Request: fold
Amino acid sequence: MSTPFSNHVSLPQEAKTQLVDTLNSMLATTSDLRSQVKQAHWNIKGPQFVARHELFDNLAAKLLGYADVIAERAATLGGYATGTVRQSAEHSKLPEYDVRAVDGKHHIKALVDRYSEYTRLIRHAVNQAEKVDDPATEDVYTEILRGTELDMWFLESHLNV
Ligand SMILES: [Fe+2]
Reply:
């Protein structure tokens, strides 16, 4: 039962259920991505250490903010937000971080791969929200899509030299 709480949002129950299911999936995936970016922040070595170490921390902070907005949208629609570390690990759509990554380029490549999959999933979620006529949830995802594609460009720019 993904939407156990009554509320007065003017959408059909079926739409709310679908939206909350996807919001919880993206909550798990966002929290997982954040933890993986922190993993890179803590373990990176090599050239441009400070710039990359700080870039990763900024990206992680943005993902924490996105997770909060996603969870609160799920609650707004009558859902129970499933956002613990264990729940995130169980429901994330991303592969585990590449624990062999040590040098900067290896970390950045690992993160670009995961941002690529993450933005694909967010784009799909935008389309789902549009299909059930919920511009508010669509707006949540659209903001995240714009922000994470920008961040993916920041990461990719370290590789294209
Ligand atoms: Fe730190």
Notes: The chain has five helices and no strands.
